[in-house]
Design a protein that fits this description.
By secondary structure, this protein is α/β, with parallel strands linked by helices. The protein has 2 domains: about 280 residues, Homocysteine-binding-like domain (TIM Barrel), CATH 3.20.20.330; about 290 residues, TIM Barrel (Alpha-Beta Barrel). The chain has 23 helices and 18 strands. The strands form 3 sheets. It has an 8-stranded parallel beta sheet. An 8-stranded parallel barrel has the order 11-12-13-14-15-16-17-18, surrounded by 5 helices. Helix 19 links the parallel strand 16 and strand 17. It is elongated. The N and C termini lie far apart (about 95 Å).
Amino acid sequence: MKEPFLEYIKENIVVGDGAMGSAIYTKGIPASHSSEELNLSRPSLVQEILREYVEAGAQAIGTNTFAANRFKLARFGLQDKVVEINRAGVEIANGIAGNAWVLAAVGPARSSETDEISDDDLRSVFAEQIEALAAAGPDAILLETFSRSDEIAIALQAATSLTKMPIIAQITADEDGYTQDGKHIASTFSYLRNLGAAVVGVNCAKGPAGIIHALEQVPLDDGLLLSASPNAGMPAYVDGRYIYLSTPEYFADSALRMRDQGVRLIGGCCGTTPAHVKAMAKALSGLKPVTSKRIVQRKAPLQPKQAKRHQHPELLKNVQKRPTFIVELDPPRTLDYEKIIEGAHALKKAGADAITMADSSLGMTRMSNMALGHIVEEQCELMPIIHLSCRDRNLIGTQAELMGLHALGIDHVLALTGDPAKFGDQPGATSVYDLNSFSLIKMMRNLNKGTAFSGRNIGPGTNFTIGVAFNPNVKRIDTQVRRLEKKVELGADFVMTQPIYNVEQVRVLADIARNFEQPFFIGIMPLASARNAEFLHNEVPGIDIPDGIRERMARYEGDRARKEGVLICQEIMQEVLTCFNGIYLVTPFVRYEMCVSLIEQAQAAVTSAA
């Protein structure tokens, strides 16, 4: 008869099994199929995998129930099979375990931190799964691959309320030992033990080196029982399949190094095979657990030298006191940016408070606004406000861009979802949209707190001032107001509107703005010609030009048409300034002199009124 798992591991090392999911994949089951459903339709396949691990020397095997919760099974229409699948998973493992212990596997229910699943729903879901597992008679409950300490705490509390059997709580962490919600494993282990976990540890996420590096910071005190199940390194994509590169020999050496860190339950996660388990079992044979070790104290990272911070006017404070002008001057579609520099100098002299640059708007390829914004700031000493679109960058690229902006000292950003790539000048381009404007705001707020979007600690934090767009040129403006309310709730600091051409909209916007503390910068865009007016009205989303304005533009051509375009904007701006201090001028075709004229006239009007 087997000794109880918890009693045995207090004095001995236990060799765990390897991957279940990737083993199923190598058996020809596509990733689009529910691995856990195989407990019902292909139990012999699951038995075969577990038997191979037992024969390789695994002393503990995990059940094929990792994603067998109601939320995850619902993807396959199996949400009503939770009890049946979990019980079958334990019964299959019990049937071939022999002297090996059976660990009933439970994985996270949330796919990401953005999943709208309440904590109460999580408790119910975990309770349903764990109750089914416990009823089938495993030796322990294994909570594994939880990236956030708050979610594994909910699962652990559900488990301790349902069963007295040992609970193993494993989280994922980076090589510095931090979870996705920014908690260090040393403090997280203490927290989980206080909640009732018998064994705590790390699994997945990294290969052995990363996990060992993290565990070096964890002291072996007060009867701590540790587990570790690393991946077989990072996978390489070869001939249409993911191949894990860590060899069994490397894992054998890594198992000894994990033992040196005080780990007692040593197994493998993604990409590990019976060969890896066999090598670890051989290396660990006859060895007892390590009960003391030298703790590695990580030095606090050196604070980076801050980028030169130019002394710009405080935009959000100034707009509360006086007319404040943001002018859009977009990067060129060629390599020649001298006219942008020339325009920025002229706008600065006229009294512009900031220059804003679009991020390849309408999907048209333009020079990097981050690079050109930095050049303008250095050469013209005019504060840049950078538009950041979610169209062209995934989560990694977007965060990298923001970190780069911070490094350059550019801290005012307009968060945009962005125009689809298919309407631009690169027919083969694809839109990414890992994020939208809402999640981009959230990402910037996280960075301001010193936390990456994944939850990883990145240092003292950024200092982004976050702008958001508002489109008043729609039939149902209430829908735009609701979107703006959500953006403000997420952390927006100021609002920039699409250009308006109807003075009646000013009053509408004033009524809306009264409900927000955030300042509004009202968009005004001089028209360069009748053709320009027709194009904007008929082809550019978010712009609506009244018939009367288009008729006025149609009367003139050339310089006279541009003068009329400026005159129209003067009339609109005069009305705007009765309700708002914030003006957002959009420059047509880099004709910055039109915006210079508008700023100068507005400044003169303010001076004469004073």
